[in-house]
Amino acid sequence: MSDLQEAKESLSESLRQVIALLEKHKLVESLVHKQDMPKHDVGRQDLVEQLVHKQNLVALQTKLDALHPADVAHILEALPLEDRLNLWELVKADRDGDILLEVNDSVRQSLIADMDAKELLAAAEQLDADELADLAPDLPKDVLQDLLDSLDTQNRERLQSTLSYPENAVGALMDFDIVTIREDITLEVALRYLRRLGSLPDLTDKLFVVDRNDILQGVLPLKRMVVNDLEANVADVMAPDTVMFHPEDLADEAAQAFERYDLVTAPVVDKNNKLVGRLTVDEVMDYIRDESESGMRSMAGLREEEDFFASIWKSVQNRWAWLAINLMTALLASRVIGLFEGSIEKIVALAALMPIVAGIGGNSGNQTTTMIVRGLALGQISAHNMLALIKKELGVALLNGLLWGSVLGLVAYVLYDNHQLGLLMMSAMTLNLLLAAVMGVMIPLQMHKSGRDPAVGTSVLITAVTDSGGFFIFLGLATIFLL
């Protein structure tokens, strides 16, 4: 069994144990309350209840203390609101900040709503400036202001700087926990400096070489420090050419660079090449995961991340928008069908076959859209290859249309003993797949060109076009050639 599988099973077992402890706690409390005791034994009942209550809470707290903050976050996300808040009360105060960073946005909001200003301020003060930037948007304004007032000048400026960048910028992801050295020292001096520090920031794979004005000169990978003579100068061993970013750079482009060059960390510099922070692979991975989840939510028609156990009304608010659009597109498709009611009445087989044409067209269009959205995200699609891309997708659609249209036409001929109906099915399938290919390319490209996320609602629009277009093509051809 792989380490990943073991970790998943361990987390599932932890969740099961926590749920069992919560259920046991509720059951014992319920039994204590239901016991019929004489009035003079009421005090004894209260004592028993308190002892049982304390015993279960101690067991739960012990279990939580042994778990990583990310695992506690996973468990909190998997619990209904009442159980979640009960468990949250048992988390030690010095772990609140780390766990709030790990839970998803909707669950974080429910936990923050249950905390008073003093608790929130205490939790936030445990975090670094870059971590505070992730938490700050969810904090009440008065708490955020108190937090800013409590920070020293350097950390306040760092936090304000990070918050000034949009979520998709490198500046919003960078951290300030960096180790710098000068190029005119020896490796031995640099090594003694690291030993005096006692510990290194997480994911430190290189040191940043700067001059007296913090202008980046290069980087010194730790592996070079280990294998080279300690008497050598940093300037002779460092790598002068390095991948670096600016705070204004897009996080998507930084993520591509991390993947392309197998980076663990990279420096972030201002327009004067002054070192202002670093970007780490864990932040990049978190960003990629968030973007992926956001894309999946958008394709499903969800406006925002939704708590599994959110109120019914909140979930309805999150989901209604694209359902309304779906309803409108469905009404449009129904009106297209209504235009050909006479044809359907004369040839009943049309009613049974037309959903197939529309359904296959929708699937084909979504396949094309997925490829285009991925290409846009990776920066592989531009004006110079647009025509070749459209030709390629049309070729794929034509071949698929002729192949599967022929199969469907043969099935229609066997079922209804009508060769004209078979030819109609092949023709309609081919034309609808060609329509799906064109729309599958053009819709995400137009959305991208207008500055909108091409993943948001594209599948809904593609389905609308292929449904209405498929019905119109199929029933139109049937009206012309079969009646």
What does this structure look like?
- The radius of gyration is 31 Å and the shape is globular.
- With 483 residues, it is mainly α.
- It contains 22 helices and five strands.
- Helix 7 crosses helix 9 (141-150) and helix 15 (251-261) packs across helix 16 (281-299).
- Helices cover 68% and strands 5% of the residues.
- The protein has three domains: 11-173, Alpha Horseshoe (MgtE N-terminal fold); 180-280, CBS-domain, CATH 3.10.580; 312-481, Tetracycline Repressor, domain 2 (Orthogonal Bundle), CATH 1.10.357.20.
SSE topology:
Layout lengths: L2 H32 L7 H24 L3 H9 L3 H8 L7 H7 L2 H9 L3 H8 L4 H7 L5 H10 L2 H11 L6 H4 L6 E2 L5 H11 L8 E5 L5 E6 H6 L6 H4 L13 H11 L3 E5 L5 E6 H19 L12 H27 L2 H6 L2 H29 L8 H31 L2 H31 L8 H24 L2
Parallel strand pairs: 1-2
Antiparallel strand pairs: 2-3, 4-5
Summarize this structure as a short list of keywords or feature phrases.
483 residues; mainly alpha; MgtE N-terminal fold; CBS-domain; Tetracycline Repressor, domain 2; 3 domains; 3-stranded mixed beta sheet; two-stranded antiparallel ribbon; 22 helices; 5 strands; globular
